[in-house]
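Box 3.1 A note on notation
Throughout this textbook, protein chains are presented in two layers. The first layer is the amino acid sequence; the second is a token string describing backbone geometry. Keep the layers aligned when reading.
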Amino acid sequence: MFTRALIARGVKQEDLTLIESMPEFAAALSIHYPQAQILRMDATRLRMVDLFEGRPAGAVISGLPLLSMSPRKVIAVLSGAFRKMRPEGVLYQFTYGARCPVSQRFQHHLGIKAELLGRTLANLPPATVYRFRRVTSTH
């Protein structure tokens, strides 16, 4: 769903890296998006892989169930994602929870800040989108 929407908005397949841990879903992604880079792996290992020949990404889009993941895994996913992005890069997180999927404490620890972008009640369950950015230093 996310990938199709990105491509419909003009993002080229070759500019995408899709991460999927389930073999059958990774295989389906390879068929549907043959020019995208498909990595069959756990997203907590993101910091250990080379993406885009070392060039930093502009954005990460995640539908991972962060609210049901352990704090250690959430930190691994987010810190790995932000290490792979340009300084002004952003992470968009889709969630079905009633609250932000990353606590204020973890945001502070990671040097990021969440912004609620919107909710859609038409989705069952209702979906919420947050944008996470690095906190910029004022010094």
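The first strand starts at residue 17 and ends at 20. The beta strands are 17-20, 37-40, 57-62, 85-95, 112-120, 127-134.
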